[in-house]
């Protein structure tokens, strides 16, 4: 017998044999101990057998088994009610005894036994030994299980066990009550719903019956009245009739009337019958528009389960809370409707359409960011992120903050980075022999050049230059833009002759550059793309409206698709893969159905008649497929469906609508953004080809249910849409907002708080009473109060977090994608961060601070190479001015972020009365705002403050790199050019040559008459050629005048230079000879002047470009290029009006200077290592080490030091090169200068070059005739040409400075290099 099971009633102890004899029960076998199932629930004690042969007798239970639960004196505690529900156990009696005696020190076992025998006489019939053993066992087990606690020889109830049992009991009771309450509530709800439906049905039936009865009664009454009136009139006429003919006539008229009435009734019955037949013949589903038309004609009402279509909020309205949304279109501001409307006829595709394409291109269906080339280009953002970011611009927050959301900046930067880094197979590259191929190649070179100005701060200026280049490329008037390449040809056969677009135009007609109706790349004048382009000319990007920004970004995504031929191949592969997966899915489903039919049989078993033909018996199905085959088919089907579902997220290139409603409104579900359904509605409901549409969304479960219930499944389109929504509702509704969830959370929180308040009040009462108790009990009560209070606070926090997550009330930095963008940049360790432009905390500098940091960092690099030498202002003050300006702007420009829905209808109506140009925000206005912390400074002040430091920095880099020294040498050499002595000029041949030279430059200038003023490239080339001619003829005055004219030339603007040059013809009295041809470039006098053929053909040699003058000027810093020089770059800085253009000028300077400065730093370290090596070699006398040292750092080693050139002109020999004209330089650093001097070496720079070399003293010779006429035949022609050019320049410089050298001879007969003249003439 197992005495430890207290919940099972204890059997009475065995009684004596005399007791057995007095019973009438038949003895039974005692259950075996090894079979626990054979033991009854009320275990009975065995009797002691009188002998081994007699069977064991079973006596009826007496004693504890006869104790009734109701006889226990104390009320049974609730937590023990279950164990004493049917019977009493010994532990129950022990528990009752201890509780009743209530001894503070506890109750002993004898006392417990005495109490039980006193209170329950039934146990007196039990064997005393067995009774004592049972009580003792119950007590021991109670102590072992923690129900009792032993105090010396006494026992008490364990309070912890009591508390634990109470909590378990309370939890079970609460669960039971909740289940009962829910069951009751559900039952009542079902009952109420049933009664409601019944009442509604009865009401509707009564209403219909009443209406029918009323119609019938009114019809009957009217008919009867009318009939009575007719009969009375007839009787009256009959009485008035006096002859038989009159009576017959009246009777005939009455008969005709009767027949007409009968015919009318028959016609009405026929029409009603035809209507009923038409209604019966209709087959559903049918075409939706035809269905509505027939319903109207047949007067058929919609089914009762089809509700009225709900008002779907516009997409940007879904970003606010669900409670404060407009419930109709009348309550929606006009600016919201305009922002969500797509009208292709106006040239704009719409804000939401563009935003959707941007999302689908980067991370949605197309997923450029998931492709190999687009990896790590943009973060993995959601559609809500881009919509919130666009809404920040739409609300005007970006304009107030002077910063676009980082996500938008990153998308622009990534798109421009792809477009300005074209690969060899990018864009449409025609065949090698195609005449359009040079245009595409020229476009690629221009885009590569634009990449120099691209950065997080300057992308807007690069964007403008890019759009300008593409506009020039795609328009046919490009051939008139100076040296720009011809535009890409327009296929005029494409246009219809009857079209409004005119196809006749002339290349030479200035007033008709483009065919009417063709707008090129930037679109029509009123389009968002065109407006954005025009604004970028003179404004920073945050001044653009939201539709303008997304229109431009969408155009960039279109360009990426156009420029990447491999993407078309990728799309074809995706289509083929989706087709294959769909085919495999259908095949697997078909095979599964066949296998299931073969394994399970048909749903309705086949039946056959019996042999007698009287009864039909079912045919027993015999499976033809095994279980393994069925399981394999199931797995194959599931796998095919899973592969297809996964491919919907990775292989679909463009999401198709899941269906259309009856008005052809398309419903979209994007697998990458399942939070909402998007509906594209037609403005004209009956025209499916209407191009005016608006975007709405379904983002809550309640709205989803309302929309699906409004679909009339009798129509084909709405039936298919309903099936798509219903079959996919499990996945489509999963992520939608649940409006009922909030009510449930509030109700659960209210109930939880009520229970906690009740517990707190009880605990506080107990704590107040604990003052009369011992210290331990008092502390326990206080601890319980504190725990409950903490639980209440935690419950409030959890509830607020749940509501915040439910209502999407979150940090707008997360919603707008700023956090995602920052994590993306941090993961890739991007230094040129777009997030730093979004100054949402003090650690981010903003655009002005970032520009200031770039200037200061570049200055630090310069200062590490060459210390500050400017005496007008100190370096600390110079840097302080930049930093203070950035800090002032940062403090005065706060971040405006977030939106609200509290705007009233009055505010909305007032906004509708504002002019369209001022509608910059939705009904949601900025609230979450970081207000400016200090006085604000204007953007013009920031730009004007930074202009000076930027120019200083460029001059400093120009000097450090040695470009300034080389340029001055070239200019000085050109200024001292001479052809012959004055005496020789008076001679016959020389005089004739001088006269032809005079005529040649004038003739060259006269050719400007044939060049349009806007063709800046040919004008510049003509002036350069004329300058080259004037230099060879030693025409000093003419040379100065021509150079002044050239200074007026600007990229894309050569009109002023052309006018000034033509005025020189009047000044120098030029008359064109009658026998000269119009083609000036082929005149024989040009060949007599000298080798200037390059000048005449340079226009053809110069590479064509599609870049605008503004784009050309960006790359004019430092040494410049063929399209712009330092003068142009400095003018661009001086006339800069926007931060974006200023940042672009700084970025190009940084891109061009950084490689040079890094190389100079490396060369500086090389010089330091070389000096150390030479000093070590000088200290040793071992020849091998000297030889090793000379090989390691020879004279050809590229080194750098901050030097000052001297007037000492020499010839030096570097490595295997010939003796080269050079100048001796002095290092400004005292340590370097002394070290080189002590090593018997000297610093030299080649004439007209930037590089420095350290050569030994024996490798330097004075400038003399011997080296001027050295033999260069053993060297390459290029080396010989460069040496001759250097000698020529050195001689000119020395002549200009009055420096003589032995055997000086005029080397002016050397050929003039026109390319060099062009490079240095400005």
UniProtKB/TrEMBL annotation:
Keywords: Coiled coil, Nucleus
InterPro entries per the UniProt record, alphabetical: Histone_H1/H5_H15, PWWP_dom, WH-like_DNA-bd_sf, WH_DNA-bd_sf, WHIM2_dom
Record organism: Chaetoceros tenuissimus
Entry-linked CDD domains: H15, PWWP
Biased composition (Basic and acidic residues): 165-177, 185-218
UniProt biased composition (Polar residues): 329-343, 900-920
Alphabetical GO biological process terms: nucleosome assembly
UniProt name for this protein: Histone H1
PROSITE patterns: H15 (PS51504), PWWP (PS50812)
Gene3D superfamilies in the cross-refs: 2.30.30.140, Winged helix-like DNA-binding domain superfamily/Winged helix DNA-binding domain
Record domain PWWP: where: 1206-1266
Residue stretches making up the H15 domain: 86-159
Annotated transmembrane regions: none
Lineage: Eukaryota, Sar, Stramenopiles, Ochrophyta, Bacillariophyta
GO cellular component: nucleosome; nucleus
